[in-house]
Amino acid sequence: MAPPKLQPWSARAWALARKQHGVVTREQLLKLGMGAEAIRHRLRSGRLHKLGSGIYVVGRPELSERGRWMAAVLACGPDARLSHRSAAALWGIQGPPPGAPPPPGPIEVVVPSHISRRRPGIRVHRQAKLDPNRRRIVENIPVTDPVSTLADLAALLPDGELSAAINEADHLDLVRRPQLRRQLDALPQRPGVGRLRALFARQELALPATVLEQRFLRIVRSAKLPLPETQASANGHRVDFRWSRPGLVVEADSLRYHRTPERQSADMRRDHAHVSAGLTTLRFSHEQIRYEPDYVRRTLAANLARLQLGSAGAA
User: Does the predicted model carry a pTM greater than 0.90?
Assistant: First the structure.
């Protein structure tokens, strides 16, 4: 007996499912030519598994994380896109590392404000205007563009996590800082946009290296600690600050001169040389010196006390 002849739409349905991480919608199957009875037959035979209203998993019922993201977007309509923390995870700027289990919580999707759909396991955000130019496709999943994703995160995350997400987006070349001001100004006003603008303005107003070093010295004086040598030499390198007696080197890292991978590698080589010579090296960022002086003060005082105690014991 000859094997049953495959319908033309069957191969197209499988190809679509592979493209969409194992997920298809009823509407898509009908458009491909599969009839309602054929859909019911495949549900009974286990070749389709119902995931939600009008959403099916093809083949095995288990879905990858990307399959769940795809299903959530499809469930919320043609204008929906992955957003907020889920979008950040897809872009790779926030969330667990690759291979780690996904974090608990609903999948986040944004839709136009006139859409009233609710789906279990999906947190639906609504925006009055969803700019089609802000829509991207990543691994065939509709998702908010990186700038919109960061603006959405700014409405949810504390400063530390938000700064980490921005830095990761910068590291992955998803955003370019020189163009960010213009891109942020083009976003419609909504929660998070103003905060993200303020954060970038704060970073754009970074202090020049000399001013940053002056602020650091003010922190040293306010803690009544011994003053260091400035622009001193250690192991053939110029360093910002050095306490030669206890053997402490401090570098004040400005945003302008310590952002690139090449500069960071050079900084590490210098630090390794200092450690090999028996020196302790501390690095404080522009953010810490300008906005966290108490932290800088405590860390510096603790290390000076530790080194001085060790020096006294050795004597």
Answer: no
